[in-house]
Known about the structure:
176 residues, 3-stranded mixed β-sheet, 2 helices
Amino acid sequence: MTKEKKNEEVVEEVEATEEMVDETQELEEKVKKLEEDVNTWKTDYYKVFADMENLKRRLEKEHQNTMKFMMQSFIEELLPVIDNFERSLNVQEASEEVQTFLKGYQMIFDQMMAILQKNGVEVIEAQGKEFDPNFHQAVMTAQDENYGSNIIVEELQKGYMLKDRVVRASLVKVNE
């Protein structure tokens, strides 16, 4: 009986060991499946995060462009007023009353230009510079020995830029 009992105990131990091996394999499979799920979730998370960052950058850029375009149309409408201000400041009158008005106009003009400059509007330099079709529009040519070839002799109308974009090109007279 002892031999049979020993055999039964051995069989029971073997069966218990086989059950433990089966359970261990099942647990290892579950762990492997869970690790795969975690990796899938990580990958999905990183994709969504990258998409959100790209969307954020794109929306910021669109917002900046929208603001720039809004400013550009406003500035385009304002430029004729600035031109008229400049013309009125060029009046040559000796009377003290007119000079007082011109001083006031000059102060208003300077203030308006400072506001435009603060918001990214710059005057395009033209007089004495080399002609650049990206910034200047040639409406006349001249032959002046004091200037080299392709140099702007006279600026007929000021040009303006808004940050990196030309709002209005300078109208110029270019030396041949």
